[in-house]
Design a protein that fits this description.
single chain; 202 residues; alpha/beta; 6-stranded mixed sheet; 8 strands; 17% strand; globular
Amino acid sequence: GVSQSATVVFCVEAGPMERQAALLAESLRRWGGRFASSPILAIRPRFGPPLQRATRRAFDALGVTYRRVRPTHGCWWYGTINKPTALAAAEEIADTDLILWFDTDTLVVEDLPELDLPADVDFAARPAESILGTTGEGSPNDPYWRTVCEKLGLSYDALPWITSFPEGERIRMYWQGGVYGYRRSTRLAQTHLGIYLRRLEM
């Protein structure tokens, strides 16, 4: 069984995402192993039409807590700002040791022990694809990553090297979303959202 408490979080917005969200929740409850009975938060992180009644009924049947969140920043229009906005809101609602993020188009088909973080680990994620990463000097993406680090006051050289998935290339560490978990006490979502907003201002 799970050795610590975890809250599963994902976005939901009106439209095709609703069906995906319901299927994600259903798959987690059926095949999620140690996390099958974990609290689930479905966050609607920006303005838009309401969810369908069928979606709300599915959430109720699956024990999913649905929350509408009014973004406190002015960048709600930006496509992928929904993820860090939802996660930052969830961090204020959850009271568990861990927060597990799932992109809404994910299906859970087995137990996920890698997200049941060991005591000396604060964060775990699947590595990103190499297409947007940098393999180092000479990579077409390298100037972007160096500029972002400089503008955010981060050390480019301190970014660890990881192996991209599925290509298996050596790239500087980054992740796009997908599935990841972290300790709520780190307040990672607040930092993530702050960096995201600063990057949009660059």
